Amino acid sequence: MFVDVTDIDEAQYLALMYILNAAHEVGWSANLDATWSTLDRVMSPSETDLALNALHDKGLIYLIASDNSNLEYRRGLKDAGVCLSFSGMAVLINFPNRFLARINERFGDIPETLTATLIPLLNLERVPAADRYVSTVDNLPQFAVLAENLDVLKQEIVKDQNQNELPIKQKRAVVAELEGLLAQVRGGFVKLSDLTSRARPLLKEIADVCKDITVIAVAATSALVAIKAILASLF
């Protein structure tokens, strides 16, 4: 089935990403009620309905009843599942460059769980699989900034371990995480999933709880900006 990708918008591509994340692979079914609930938190219910209805009409998703019969799209279906078609999977795999930046602009940052599910399916000549390593040589300035700010955070937290003035819980565990990330950067290769699933959530938490502590807030924010630039260069 031919699909005109220019007729697909950011909301539709984002809906495909959420369905993939919930169903894990083509042919597996995600719960439709849960999909509605998730997408309604990201976009308005009317946007959700427009996106899913368009995907259904284009054959990029299909709905199945509990008896495995096919369903027409309408809100309020009970005990229905939503699946990616092979055409829907092909759109996800072939067009991340077209949609991901636009989705970030329209809906805010894409959750790491969505990109972590999508990345292993992409063309590995252009984007490494989530469980592979990225060479720091390819983004040396950004990795240098990342390393510098991770080291600042580590030193500040280590200094505070006896004073206990920073509002950071489990400081030794946080320091160990920072040291592990630093070791990868300084070693020349960084695991992509560690950037998306470990470093970014950790740095966001540090920046949030230490927002009134300038040296830490600036370092955490600068490290996040560096990671965002590194990830953007991979797509």
Q: What features would you describe in this structure?
A:
The chain has 235 residues and is an alpha+beta fold. Helix content is 60%, strand content 8%. The protein has 10 helices and 6 strands, in the order αβααβββαααβααβαα. The strands form 2 sheets. Strands 1-4-2-3 form a 4-stranded antiparallel β-sheet. Strands 5-6 form a two-stranded antiparallel ribbon. A hairpin with a 5-residue loop joins β2 and β3. The longest helix has 21 residues, at 140-160. It is elongated, with a radius of gyration of 21 Å. 30% of the residues are buried. Mean pLDDT is 85; it is low at 124-128.
Secondary structure: elements and pairs:
Layout: H1 10-23, E1 29-31, H2 32-42, H3 45-57, E2 61-64, E3 70-71, E4 81-84, H4 86-94, H5 96-107, H6 112-118, E5 133-135, H7 140-160, H8 171-187, E6 189-191, H9 192-209, H10 214-233
Antiparallel strand pairs: 1-4, 2-3, 2-4, 5-6
Helix pairs in contact: 1-3, 1-4, 1-5, 1-6, 7-8, 7-10, 8-9, 9-10
